[in-house]
C-alpha cells in the first residue's frame, strides 16, 4: 500500500509550495488546502473501492473465460491456474467516477479549465474502452495504432499553448543547409512550419 501511495507525496509537497508562493492571503491558502484534502480523500476512496472490487470482478471475468495462464510458471502447480484478464476496467472505471465527482469541486473554482478537463476525460474514456475491448476481442495492431491517435484529438483541439519545438542539432541540416530549405524540408513543409530565420533550429507543429 505504501508503494502505491508513494507517488502522491512529491505532488503533495509541490502543491503546498505553490500555494505558499502564489497566494496572497490566509483565506486563499485555507481554501486551496481544503480543496487539496478533498481531492486526497477522493483518491483514498478510489483506492479503497479498487482494492475491494478487483477480487469480485475477477470472478466474473474468469466465468466468462477472460483469462490466461502464467507462462513464467509453466510446469508448476501455479502454472495451471487461470489468471483473470481485463481487470484494468476496474481501476479505470473507479478513476473516471472519482474524476467526475472531482469536477463538481473543480467547476466552482476553475470553470475556465472545464474544457481541458472534459477533453482529458473523453480521451481517457476512449482509451479505457480500447483497452477493455482489446483484452476481450484481441484487436489487431493496425487498429491499436490508429485508435489512440483518434483518442488524442480532443486534447489537441483544446490545447492553446506553444506548438514550437527546438530541433536536435543532428537533424537541423536535414531541414536547412546554408540557409536553404532542403528537399526533405520542402516535403515536411506541407505538415509543419520551418522557421527559416533560425536556419531550421525551430519548427512549428501547429494544427493545420
Task: Describe it.
- This protein has nine helices and seven strands.
- Helices cover 62% and strands 8% of the residues.
- It is extended, with a radius of gyration of 24 Å.
- It has helices at residues 2-5, 8-22, 26-63, 89-109, 114-137, 141-151, 153-158, 172-175, 183-188, and strands spanning 67-68, 83-84, 164-166, 176-177, 180-181, 193-194, 202-204.
- The chain has 208 residues and is mainly alpha-helical.
- A three-stranded antiparallel sheet has the order 3-7-6, with no helix packed on it. It has a two-stranded antiparallel ribbon with strand order 1-2.
Features:
208 residues, extended, mainly alpha, two-stranded antiparallel ribbon
Please sum up the structure shown.
The protein is mainly alpha-helical and 208 residues long. The chain contains nine helices and seven strands, in the order H-H-H-E-E-H-H-H-H-E-H-E-E-H-E-E. The protein has a three-stranded antiparallel sheet with strand order 3-7-6, with no helix packed on it. A two-stranded antiparallel sheet has the order 1-2. Strands 4-5 form a two-stranded antiparallel ribbon.
